[in-house]
Amino acid sequence: MIKQRITTGTDTLKSKNTQDVFVGDQITALRIGAMPSSRFGNQEFAMEWATKDVQGKVIEGTVIDREIFIRSGYYKINLMHFVADQPILIKRNDFWEWKKPPQIQKGDVMFGHSTQFQVETISFIEVSVQTFELKVDMCDTYFLNGILVHNRV
């Protein structure tokens, strides 16, 4: 099973394994004011969004959907695991933007809840693995492995 942890809480941060998160659970999210919502058919526009400054409010979002998939592998970025189609907020050339793991490069910076992480290593691990996809109500983002990811895989 892929090793992923979901951040919970807004004041006192905790985390739990992704497989232990269910519909109705509260998880930590970041509402970014300037980012277009991916709802109502704006998903491609949201994925093309970029900014020099991430301004937002940490909130608790409610998990409204949870799906289980079997995938043929995952990406290991530094020591963290992500599926290939999981958008991650990274900084490249002074801009924050959404990139999926195959597009991420060494030297990119990932947006973390309490700090930023520079990508030092990235590799694809080819193995059949069970993964979980979460959808969060009223917010397009949440923290996975302490890193901000987009709600829309």
Tell me what the structure shows.
The protein has 153 residues and is mainly beta. Strand 7 and strand 8 form a beta hairpin.
SS summary, helix count:
1
Tell me the overall shape. globular
Compressed to H and E, one letter per element, the order equals: EEEHEEEEEEEEEE
Secondary structure tally: strands? 13
Q: Termini, distance in Å?
A: 19 Å
Assess the beta-strand content as a share of residues. over 45%
| Overall pLDDT confidence | 89
The radius of gyration computed from the alpha-carbon positions, rounded to a whole number of angstroms, is: 14 Å
In what order do the strands lie side by side in the largest sheet?
4-8-7-9-10
Largest sheet entry: 5 strands, antiparallel
Record keyword descriptors for this entry.
53% strand; mainly beta; 4% helix; single chain
